[in-house]
Structures are given as C-alpha cells and as structure tokens.
Automatic annotation (TrEMBL):
The active site is at H100, E172. Homodimer. It comes from Sinosporangium siamense. One of its GO terms (biological process) is gluconeogenesis. It is found in: Cytoplasm. The gene is tpiA. GO terms for cellular component: cytosol. InterPro entries: Aldolase_TIM (IPR013785), TIM_sf (IPR035990), TrioseP_Isoase_bac/euk (IPR022896), Triosephosphate_isomerase (IPR000652), Triosephosphate_isomerase_AS (IPR020861). This is Triosephosphate isomerase. HAMAP family: TIM_B. GO terms for molecular function: triose-phosphate isomerase activity.
Amino acid sequence: MSRKPLIAGNWKMNLNHLEAIATVQKLAFALNDKDFDRAEVAVLPPYTDLRSVQTLVDGDKLRIVYGAQDLSQHDGGAYTGEISGAMLAKLGCTFVTIGHSERRQYHGEDDPVVNAKVLAAYRHSLTPILCVGEGLPVRQAGGQVAYSVSQLDGALNKVTAEQASSIVLAYEPVWAIGTGEVATPDDAQEVCGALRARLAELYDGEVAAAVRILYGGSVKSDNISGIMAQPDVDGALVGGASLDPGEFAKICRFSEKSG
Ligand SMILES: O=C[C@H](O)COP(=O)(O)O
C-alpha cells in the first residue's frame, strides 16, 4: 500500500494571526501550492491563528491543510481555557497533535489523558497526530523501542481498527527536539518500524500498512532526504524549521531532492 507522505509544521507558540497569514501566503508561493503534489502539507498554528488560516486557505483554494496543536478531552462545558474538538472541526481543521512531549512534560499529560484526547479527536472527525518518543536517559539505556511502543499502547485504548487506520503517528525523540541533535535515519527507522509492527499486533497488517508514521526532531532541508528514505518513515513533524516558509517548502520537496 502506498502512503502519501505528510509534512506537518508545528509552529508551537510562535506567530500571531497576522504573521500566520504572511507565512501561509509565502509557503503557498514557495511550494507552488496549486501544482504541488509530492506530499500532503499541513501547518499546525496556535489556536488564535486558525480562523485567519482557514479564511486564507478557503479563499485562495490552497491545498495546504491545517490543524491544531492540542484539544480538550471534553466536548464542552465548564473547562476554562480549553478548546473542544467540535470547535476545531468547525474551523475546518484536518489534524490535531496529541501527546506532544511538551504537553507531556509541561502540562502533566499522561497516557490516559492522551488516550482520552485521541478518542475526543475521533468523536469530531479530526485526525490525531499522536506523538511518542523517549527522553535521553531512556535512549542511553537502550529502551527507546519499549518506551515508545508503551506510549502507543496507552494512547490506543478503546480505539477501533477503523479509527486506528487513519491515525498519524509521530516518533519524536525528546533529546532531538529543538536541540539540533537529529536522530540518524537508522534511529528513526528502528522506532518507526517497531511502531508499525505493534499496530499489526494490536490490529492487523492492513491497519499497520495504512498508518503514516512521521519522524520529528531537528528536521531541516539538509537532513530530510535520509530520513525519508527509510521504509517506515512517511513524513516529518517539523518544529523550528517550519517557521521559515522557504526552508519548510524545501523540506516538503524532499522527494525531489532525494529523487
Ligand atoms: O513538533 C515538532 C517537534 O517538536 C520538533 O521540533 P524541532 O523541529 O524544532 O526540533
């Protein structure tokens, strides 16, 4: 089964709504958006930018899709400061990142919370980009596969095979995020391959073959091609480099560079 590559830019807490408009316009121009078909290209702006991005994408009929960086596990009610899946769906979001290591680390999100958010995303027809990945001590102890697979297990409780077949996974070793320490292509393949094998055990080979698995952690235009050449890596979740539309467009053209 062929999986269309996905390159997603996680802007994190950067770019206000005016900067978001300028960035998406520049990205669309740099990609030659109307003709670009090598990969699905997504941006994941802060919540406050989403309406502006939606207006631009709809108005100019861009192929770029967009999503949010998080959502509430609840569907509505007295949850001050939270944003529901229904609100994101109404804004035309395709994706929502769930379980990013920065949410786990700074907001105490554990596997049950991540699982509840995955289920909330499916209730509102959003596609989760589920992030897993080990910190440096786990990597140094050689536990990266077991750790990442265990986060996957924790996130997929009560997720059906039909739902799971549409999920996007992102393997993001914490030690490689924002540090310039990119994992080697073999490092990325080791864990991405293990995640796919686990999907086959939890569900079946068809589900495992359908799921796109991204690598994230200091991805740049000069290291993307080696990562994308790995059989179980289907794209990238890009942080810092996604804030520069020219550089991000180059990352999205990985296959032209490697091919
Ligand atoms: O979600 C993206 C990752 O945290 C990677 O961030 P980075 O590309 O800045 O290392």
